[in-house]
Amino acid sequence: MAKVFKKTSGNGGLTLYLGKRDYVDHMSSVDKVDGVVKLDPADFGDRKVFVQLACAFRYGSDDLDVIGLCFRKDIWIQHVQIYPENHKPELSAMHDTLLKKAGDNAHAFSFEIPNNLPCSVSLQPGPDDQGKACGVDFEVKTYLAKEKSNPDEKIEKKDTARLIIRKIQFAPSEVGAGPKADICKSFMMSDKPVHLEAAMEKDLYFHGEAIPIKIKINNESNKTVKKFKVTVDQTTDIVLYSADKYTKAVFTQEFGETVDPSGTYENTLTITPLLADNKEKRGLALDGRLKDEDTNLASTTMLRQGVEKDVLGILVSYKIKINLMVAGGGLLGGLTASDVTVELPLMLMHPKPAGILFINTHTNV
């Protein structure tokens, strides 16, 4: 028997049923949200039963609402009325399963999630933060009310039942060619430059997968390459009424390799950015989580071409930086020290489970 998720309202009159909580964004479309609500209308009076699906940005804990601060901003919301019935979706196999499970007096509903909405992302709370994490979430809620969405009508908590769901993306079937970058940098008091090249085998890696980076250094200068550092940066773009972008390092490692004047270096280094090494970093973007289950660094946001400007919410991207620290010689050594840096884009995602078709028409953020 397939797993069923259900939640009953405090008054016992509404029971919400869903067959799954993860809904896949295939780029061209998103899985439909098919569900059922079982009703016990004894205490409904003149109230109607509605179901809503909302995509919202949450930026505080529920406790803030007590002092009148709004802690959710709806990005997209849709309502349907199921009692008295005026929404009758075409029944799917999922509906049939849930209707059998729910029994008598159960009503089906269906929502289509637009494919220009963000995926579920949460921002990692700091060690002392309380309440629910900030981020983008999707919530299915059934409730009793006289009107569908009258802001003046008070809906009691006991008259609602809700379940958080996730909109997720998987890696496309085809992986692209690996990115390459190179730089040739000249220095004060040196006739010749330092060449740095970096390359990856492919453009997309799975969470937890080792990432090999091929590095070549050709030091034609009279300076010494003292060491170099590899960093993976996560850039989080929060797009609501105004854009807010910030970058946090999720992997940093120094390599104490020296390359003398006229020397060369060639090697393949392996790195693996993991959430386990970043548990204390407040505000880091993570894949949306249900309750307190384990999650991982947020997956790279993939957008259909043409919708980049229309998407609200949280967009996530990564880049790898390779930074050489080059020291000068002689009395001015410290003053003439310099850095040589290249950057490579990185996509981090989950592999697609067997049986899910994926049409690749993407651009990554």
From TrEMBL:
Domain of life: Eukaryota
PROSITE patterns registered for this protein in UniProt: ARRESTINS
Descriptive protein name: Arrestin-C
SMART domains (UniProt xref): Arrestin_C
Family of the protein in this entry: Belongs to the arrestin family.
InterPro entries associated with the record: Arrestin (IPR000698), Arrestin-like_C (IPR014752), Arrestin-like_N (IPR011021), Arrestin_C-like (IPR011022), Arrestin_CS (IPR017864), Arrestin_N (IPR014753), Ig_E-set (IPR014756)
Pfam families: Arrestin_C, Arrestin_N
Source organism (scientific name): Seriola lalandi dorsalis
Span of domain Arrestin C-terminal-like: 190-353
Keywords: Sensory transduction, Vision
GO molecular function, one term: G protein-coupled receptor binding
Function as written in the Swiss-Prot or TrEMBL entry: May play a role in an as yet undefined retina-specific signal transduction. Could bind to photoactivated-phosphorylated red/green opsins.
GO BP of this protein: G protein-coupled receptor internalization; nervous system development; signal transduction; visual perception
